[in-house]
DNA sequence: TATTAAACGAGACGGTACGTCGCGTCTTGGT
DNA sequence: ACCAAGACGCGACGTACCGTCTCGTTTAATA
């Protein structure tokens, strides 16, 4: 009847995921523990385990659920402008705090647990890729993109360097970097005749 | 006295790293523990901790040390041929068993521990990048590469899509993929006039 | 509709107690849990808690209810013969499987929970003692028993050594032991003049 | 070097058993937990489990170790006087606080765990019985005891009624009760001729 | 007959404790 | 003097039950 009742009854799930993000932000994913999540969320450990099979699965859910509005593609007719805007949005969301370090940790966890990797792919990477490919296909049909370009490959080429920076060199992802990247990819590395 | 003695005496370090790789291959990095390494290596835990501050650091050392001959760049004068060969070598070494999963786990660990990330960069990523950039610069001077191309960026563009496949979509890295990638990057995405 | 239905409807109480004994016999009282009883009896936990406040209370009820015909005293006029027969009956019932181990566990539980001890006394020990004392009193009046003998004490003297065997040394209770015991108690330990 | 060092180094065992008795006295054996013992003793749970396989085994050790000087038999030449004194001592030690309730709980636990029962017998009951039987044998040789009396049985007859009071009716064990018991057992229940 | 209250199965829930594992530090005994 | 062996305090794991608490669903007794 009360708000408390409703909140607790219908969705402890939300509270647990919220707490998970809090603790991950405060102490880092590595020091996160289901024990601590349950304690701070005021919830029994079983209630967590009933919903998620592992710390990783909980974290995945928490991060992806918090993802907010998603990253929908604009379509202004100008491919480059649209790509620029979309990649900037992705970089702003996943490349810097508060979500950046969490996303980075999530990808890290995916390296240790194939179930996390699979879930991450299905729930985030692939949908995102599909949207990108769709936009690219349209551009290709309009002649804004080299006709013979493999679009799945294009997706990897656009994303890869950003992930390389995020995960490997771990330098900040700036709009300026996005800009240089787009220009380079469009032009190609071969010398101009 | 014996060979055994000398091995143990002079270089327990080697034995510990070897055991680390063994266990990581058998059970996966996630289930690796210093406890188990010390036990199987027939070594006191102290002896491990005296050499490495953490499981991650030990693993990093073990993986990088095992790296074999390194990935030196050929220089036949033909940039594309050299790139192809070098990337194929890298992919063959780090993109498939036995080393592939370990390298993947190592990059994963780097997401949780900045010290591992830093060490990985210094000891492997940067040197490798430097060699690549050097080769690219030479090619640029010879007009085999677009003059205005940012070479650091080129490095990211060449590596990124491979890491994307290794870490994110986790599909196998084939020579065929390398081929398509090289072609695409050289040509650029912009439509041919 | 079926027998099952009627049984469940009219007396879940019986079903729960029956299941309790089953499980206690299969796994031992120590591993008995209300959770398991409810599950096997096909009954909600609430239905158990509505009837008994604790595992111990349930077990007490189950054991005492299963007690069968009770241990009524014969009265043939011969005290020793009657005692012999009655004690043999008690020993056969409570001193050997299937009920023996359960009764033993019940007494054990009474050491940890005063409510169980009290209930055990009221529902089993005292009535049994009263019957014994009544029989002894009659014998005393008939001169078959030393006149000044404290009858409550007599009860303890008759029962005590049996419980000592059952609970402390945990050796089997045989008719032969009963025989020796009776002879000894009647004769007394003092040397014959 | 310090007292702390020595105490912790040589004998955590003592500290754990001491704490066990404390907690058992404060909250009762039923509410005792290894978790709580370890916490209050300032000791890891593992350190407890390394020494004792179960709460019961720990408790047994703690109770028996605390037993103090043991219950040695006097031998004044007068059997009845000696028995009286020895039984009084036992009753004073095990029949009243602080040790009484603990001993009662220990016997209770022995009903649920055969290993405890066995250990209790070997470490306390049997030695005590042996001493009693030895004293009785001597008395028998001196004609202070009926010649044909089975001495093992005598032990059970002397102890049984006391355990019956302690465990079953759970009434207090007084010197007066001991007195009546001794008199009755010596005289026997048969009517005086 | 229709209504209503109680009992019910099922099982989620906040807790406590279990017994285990591995951490990183510290101690001991043997060579 | 070094080192294997492993004890130690600690924290977290994942599990089992506790006793309480909703949920709809029978079931029975009343209106």
Question: What do these coordinates show?
Answer:
Four copies of one chain form a homotetramer. Chain A has 193 residues and is mostly helical. The first copy, chain A, has two domains: 3-64, Homeodomain-like (Arc Repressor Mutant, subunit A); 79-187, Tetracycline Repressor, domain 2 (Orthogonal Bundle), CATH 1.10.357.10. Helices cover 73% and strands 0% of the residues of chain A. Chain A is built from ten helices and no strands. Chain A has helices spanning 3-10, 12-27, 34-41, 45-51, 55-65, 79-94, 99-112, 114-141, 151-169, 175-187. In chain A, helix 5 runs antiparallel to helix 7 (99-112). The longest helix of chain A is centred in the middle third of the chain and has 28 residues, at 114-141. Chains A and B meet through helix 7, helix 8, helix 9 and helix 10 of A and helix 7, helix 8, helix 9 and helix 10 of B. Chain A binds a DNA duplex (31 and 31 nucleotides) through helix 3 and helix 4.
Brief digest:
Four copies of one chain form a homotetramer. Chain A is mostly helical and 193 residues long.
Instruction: Work out the oligomeric state of the chains in this entry.
Output: homotetramer
Chain pair forming the biggest interface: A-B, 50 and 50 residues
Assign the CATH topology of the largest domain in chain A: Tetracycline Repressor, domain 2
CATH superfamily of the largest domain in chain A: Tetracycline Repressor, domain 2
The CATH C-level class name of the largest domain in chain A: Mainly Alpha
Order of helices and strands of chain A: HHHHHHHHHH
